[in-house]
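Lab notes, practical 5.
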Amino acid sequence: DAGLSEIADGCPLLEKLDLCQCPLITDKVLVAVAKKCPNLTSLTIESCANICNEGLQVIGRSCPKLKSLTIKDCLHVGDQGIVSLVSSASSCLERIKLQALNISGIVLAVIGHYGKNLIDLSLNGLQNVGEKGFWVMGNALGLQKLRSITINCCNGLTDKGLQA
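Output from the prediction step:
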């Protein structure tokens, strides 16, 4: 945490941050990046077991230029963190990729409502998202600019959800 926090302090123009398989990194790093790097446009967090909702909430509030978000295989990231980030950073978000997360249909409903600038959406291995989540996302009328959607291994996707 200390090393990446120092990098955030020294790199206020940082635009892209990829954290992949960093088991010792915690929300403290995301909070430091959010406070010191307001120009962040791309964030990838993959297989970081100690990243939770708090860091994502602060990123959403403090990084208004965020265009691309990828969160994959982070056990402690849930609805609260992603909902807060998406609803706060919705004015610029163009790409969202969510994979192997413990989230519910609430996240999809928020994406459907706030995703007004979203052009690319990828949802993979979201086992706890039910049919209603996909249906609400499709009927929320916020995805008017969406050009590409990828959905894999999401058991809740049904014909009804696709029709929406």
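Observations recorded by the TA: The mean pLDDT is 91. Helices lie at 2-10, 27-36, 53-62, 79-88, 105-114, 131-139, 159-163.
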